[in-house]
Each structure stands twice: as C-alpha cells, then as structure tokens.
Write a structure and sequence with these properties.
Blueprint lengths: L1 E4 L2 H6 L5 H17 L2 E5 L3 H12 L4 H15 L5 E4 L9 H8 L7 H7 L8 E4 L2 H6 L7 E4 H8 L4
Parallel strand pairs: 1-2, 1-4, 2-3, 4-5
Helix pairs in contact: 2-8, 3-4
Amino acid sequence: MDLVVNEWLPEYFKPDASNDEKQALERFLVCFSKKGYKMVVKKSSPFITKIFRYAKNFQHSADVVSPIRNFIKYVLMDSDRCMLVEEESGQDLPQNVSQKLSTGNFGSDRYLFEAASFIHNPEKIIITTDARLKDHFKGDSWCRIILLNDFLENYCNDI
C-alpha cells in the first residue's frame, strides 16, 4: 500500500516531541516496515524540507539525529520503501480537490494531494494529524484522509 504522510512525521523526531508522539512515530515506522508499505513524497515539499533541516540542526546530538538519519537512509533513499516524485510529472488534481484546497486555509496542503496523484492504486491514502483537513475533505472519494491514531488502530493493530 502506498501512503502520503504529512509533516507530523518529521516533527515527531524532534527532541521536544511528547512521549505519545514519539511512541506513535515508533509504532508507525514499525508497522510501515513490517507491512511493506511505501511512502510517496514530493522532492520539494515541507516534509522534505523539515526532515533535512532537522538532520542538520540536530547533528550535534547523536541520540536525536541518528533516528532521523536512519529514516532518511532506510526509507527516503530506498526506492522499495519510498517513491520520491518530481512536481512536473504528476497528474492534474481533480477539479473538486483543487477547489477544496483553494477554500479556507488548505493551500499549504496541496503537496500532499499532488504526491497522492502518483499513487496508481484505487486507494490513495494521506495520513495526517490535522483533523480540520480530514473534516474539510469528508465525503471526497478521490482519496482517503486518515488521522494517524486511526491509522495505527485500524492498519497496525496486529503488530
């Protein structure tokens, strides 16, 4: 299964992340690895910017930077686990998705939907912690927006 993940993931690597956030990150990564999921990530996105910025900013703290570097090495740089996509080669977003992204304060989430356009399976999944985003796209059939806790409960409960 291909997944798009927003910036909660890099944020949960930070040393100031709560214990619950760190546990959710660990559980997600174990599930992701064991189930053989694949992440779809735009090369120029807030997700990539944050993960590499944190790798640089925390380079003097081995206990913080090691998990970030491992994620970069074993997920982002592994074509079996991650599809890094270029902006130019994606599919145009459906009109209804573009319209919803332009309504309210959701334009910054466009990269998630653009990444999801590279998923060729019928089920396009975006994993987020943003309940507002999920509610805003409720009933849209082009992709499924799943809150992280719901994903962990429904897709990773057997791990």
